[in-house]
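Key idea: predict the complex, not the pieces.
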Amino acid sequence: MADPDPIIEVHGLVTRFGERIIHDGLDLTVRRGEVLGLVGGSGSGKSVLMRTILGLLRPSAGTIRLLGADLTSLSREKLVALRGRTGVLFQDAALFSTLTVAENAQVPMRERFGWPEALMAELACLKIALVGLPDDARDKYPSELSGGMRKRAGLARSIAIDPEVLFLDEPTAGLDPIAAAAFDELILQLSRTLGLTVVMITHDLDSLMRITDRVAALINGKAVVAPIDELRRLDDPWLRQYFGGPRGRAALEAGQAAG
Amino acid sequence: MSAILKAERQGDQAVVTGAGAWLVDQAGWLAVRLRRLPVRLAGVRRVSLDLCGIERLDTSGAWLIARTERHLQAAGVEVTTEPPQGPGDADLLQHVRSLKLAHHRLAEPPGAVVALLGRIGRAMEEAGRLAVALLGFYGAIFLRTAAALARPWQIRWTALAHHVEQTGLGAVGITVLLSFLIGLVMAWQGATQLVRFGADIFTVDLLTIAVLRELGVLLTAIIVAGRTASAFTAQIGAMVLNEEIDAMRVIGIDPIDTLVLPRFFALLLAMPILTFIADAAALLGGAMVVLFELNIPWVQLVGRFGEVATLTHLLVGLVKAPVFAFAIALIGCWNGLRVERNAESVGRMTTQSVVASIFLVIVVDALFSILFVRLGI
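Result:
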């Protein structure tokens, strides 16, 4: 199944930490415009895979193409340019604690384009409105925000310069069900209106059901990729446990009732 | 691919054509050009925005279009927009238009004089607030101490012993080394001056009095302030960060009893002992110079030392040690409890502990000097 326009292509990825093999010949293709969920048990290498695709970690073997460029043989300048086209929301939002929300959103603009202050301020306002934060959140510091608002602020920073692909590390972890559902909606809406490709690590079965087009399950160092309905039917002990447990069943039933 | 923008005017009508890629990397110059549009088209009644030629659009581009429409309408111009034809572009534009963006005003930075006065004012207010809070903490310590003395079996002896070991025994090495070196250097500097007057033996007087009354205790206090005040703040601060203090309160444990008092009394015990050790080490360092550099026989050195080193000199130094210990522990523990629930705060408070406790030690030392001079000791 050759994809005409893949955003990310991972081929034969091997990641080794000392004796431990995390990824063992992993293949993964992410298509333009899709929302891909990334699941796996603790220590299965979800975050490591994300960091490798982002070029924060070097793989032991294999090739990674991000937006058409081979990450392993990229010059520093090219890598920096590529980073401008990707956005990342880290697990705890990783907002710069000494800057306000608006200033956080302006950081990528300032670094990449060096626009006049007024334009950056106005565009920061736009991004903050896009992620659904109230106006008065703009001049607050990250420590003054609730968990859900911090994640939204982190999202505003990660879409500050209109990336083509957005990486989310457990976006709904630590949020109450209402905030988590609202955040799911927000991601879905942004990916539709902005045409974003989204790669999302999550343990939230409701999120998986609600917003992913396909799900990649990391099992034994390899990735099994399929829409969630197909994934459920695969005969794999880990997947059976994952979807067959009480939480999995509840989420699936809720998803079917809603859909 | 870059963005294209053209404006043509015919009488009281104008056509603005946009084409190409209206993406974030083009937004800088597009924003400037579009900003001037209402001025350039002054007097125009009707503007048609023809954006069919735009092939790629992102939020920045959509926002620029929405902003231009707003500006033109605000200037009383009738605007008709032909939206971009790309898939989803019209929706994106509509979505951005629908967002209620409050007008963002850049705060006018105040003048330099006003800013300076403002900073001084805020610092003064903060200092006043902190002084009151510190006084409150000081009072709380006395209250809890009184309560602990009434029920001595409830005192945390294990914690006390642990902190004596940490703050006292752990500091012996560095205190001995630094005091020895300072004693050596002082004796050397004093001797080179005194030799010129043939008053070599007075090096012993100089060193003994300086070390016993001032240097030993001051040096110890500065080492302890750097080592222990910072440790107290970091330890207690990390517990605040981890909600351990709140957990204690909920269980019914007073954090002053468990965290502050053991550290306080440990330091009160350890400081005089450390000071005594520092005195001895500094005198030993000085003795090295007197014996081997000035070649004064040791019998003469000991005799002279015996005459100069009175109990008064020793006590003048030692009596300051618990007071300094009090100041250091007070600042260290207080700053630890003041840590806010963000990681940056621990670092800031730790730095502040060291600076504030050294400052306080030197101020108290100066007050002692005045006191002793007045008392004629």
